[in-house]
């Protein structure tokens, strides 16, 4: 079983002493932030766990008019059992994105640059709000692989990825059901179902997957599953004006039971992207968990 923890927690205790700021969706200027990434897996018979830990400092420039330029580095701290390429400083993200909002119903986001999971290219995301309990979404990308550890290198952009899905939100219980399917970064196909329970500053979910079984997997199953936890960290910063220093926006934990850890995976175009907040500015998308108030109830828009 391979488990992955994306831990954004550096500066959290220190940040609790700082004054609270406005919503990130209203910002203009430059945010400097830092988190950490902890990965471990228990597939090695010679040691209890293989461990990889590195810091992930990043920057976001909110240019205005829904334009954003983002970048993130990986600074290795501990590597026990992972490939030696992770001993080098690497570029995790360098992307330019623009959001479009067509009223309250339809939202579009276009991105280009270097994404997570060592992918680069162009990406388009779409969200359509049908009503207060149903929304449709889709994602499409044209990507290639890149490396920035020991040497820089780029493969040809020859992979088409896409994903379509639907989400249902039950306001009374702050519970969300999501189903999606598509073609992923390793050119494999699959479908996924997920149940998410939203709390005021935290989301917990269970997910199940049915994916294409590759030819190189001799003994294995097409089924996979696991759980996720997303915790929003306090939105506090140091700095005045349009230059701010803050911790990363969220803590993410994913436990994934899978035959092959690269199957049914999609890249992130934003270094702080997570399953709770979604792809778009929370202030612009008036649906689902974005309408939750500080007591866990629903705001009236």
Describe the secondary structure blueprint for this structure.
Blueprint: E1 2-6, H1 12-15, E2 29-41, E3 50-64, E4 67-80, E5 90-102, E6 106-115, E7 119-129, E8 134-147, E9 153-154, E10 159-170, E11 175-183, E12 189-198, E13 202-211, E14 223-232, E15 243-247, E16 250-257
Parallel strand pairs: 2-15
Antiparallel strand pairs: 1-2, 1-16, 2-3, 3-4, 4-5, 5-6, 6-7, 7-8, 8-9, 8-10, 10-11, 11-12, 12-13, 13-14, 14-16
Q: Could you walk me through the main structural features you see in this protein, from its secondary elements to its overall organization?
A:
The chain is 1% helix and 53% strand. The protein is built from one helix and 16 strands. The protein has one helix at residues 12-15, and strands at 2-6, 29-41, 50-64, 67-80, 90-102, 106-115, 119-129, 134-147, 153-154, 159-170, 175-183, 189-198, 202-211, 223-232, 243-247, 250-257. Strands 1-2-3-4-5-6-7-8-10-11-12-13-14-16 form a 14-stranded antiparallel beta barrel. Strand 5 and strand 6 form a beta hairpin. The longest helix has 4 residues, at 12-15.
Uncertain runs: 1-26
Question: What is the helix tally?
Answer: 1
Q: How many strands?
A: 16
Q: Strand arrangement, largest sheet?
A: 1-2-3-4-5-6-7-8-10-11-12-13-14-16
Round the Cα radius of gyration to an integer and report it. Answer: 19 Å
Shape summary? globular
Concise overview:
The protein has one helix at residues 12-15; strands at residues 2-6, 29-41, 50-64, 67-80, 90-102, 106-115, 119-129, 134-147, 153-154, 159-170, 175-183, 189-198, 202-211, 223-232, 243-247, 250-257. It is mostly beta strands and 301 residues long.
């Amino acid at each position: 079983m391979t488990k992955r923890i994306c831990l954004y927690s550096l500066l959290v205790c220190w940040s609790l002493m700082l004054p609270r700021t406005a919503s990130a969706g209203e910002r203009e200027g430059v945010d400097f932030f830092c988190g950490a990434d902890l990965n471990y897996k228990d597939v090695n018979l010679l040691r209890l766990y293989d461990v990889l830990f590195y810091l992930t400092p990043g920057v976001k420039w909110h240019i205005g008019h829904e334009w954003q330029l983002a970048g993130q580095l990986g600074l290795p701290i501990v590597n026990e059992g992972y490939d030696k390429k992770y001993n080098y400083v690497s570029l995790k993200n360098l992307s330019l994105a623009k959001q479009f909002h067509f009223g309250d119903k339809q939202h579009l986001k276009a991105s280009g640059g270097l994404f997570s999971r060592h992918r680069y290219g162009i990406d388009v995301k779409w969200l359509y709000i049908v009503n207060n309990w149903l929304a449709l979404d889709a994602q499409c990308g044209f990507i290639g692989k890149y490396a920035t550890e020991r040497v820089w290198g780029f493969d040809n952009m020859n992979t088409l990825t896409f994903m379509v899905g639907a989400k249902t939100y039950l306001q009374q219980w702050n519970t969300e059901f999501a189903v999606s399917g598509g073609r992923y970064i390793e050119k494999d196909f699959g479908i996924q179902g997920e149940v998410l329970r939203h709390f005021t500053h935290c989301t917990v979910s269970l997910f199940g997957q049915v994916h294409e079984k590759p030819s190189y997997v001799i003994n294995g199953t097409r089924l996979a599953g696991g759980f996720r936890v997303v915790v929003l960290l306090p939105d506090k910063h140091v700095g005045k004006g349009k230059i701010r220093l803050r911790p990363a926006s969220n803590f993410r934990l994913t436990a994934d039971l899978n035959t092959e850890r690269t199957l049914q995976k999609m890249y992130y175009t934003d270094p702080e992207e997570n399953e709770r907040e979604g792809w778009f500015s929370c202030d612009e998308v008036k649906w689902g968990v974005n309408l939750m108030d500080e007591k866990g109830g629903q705001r009236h828009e």
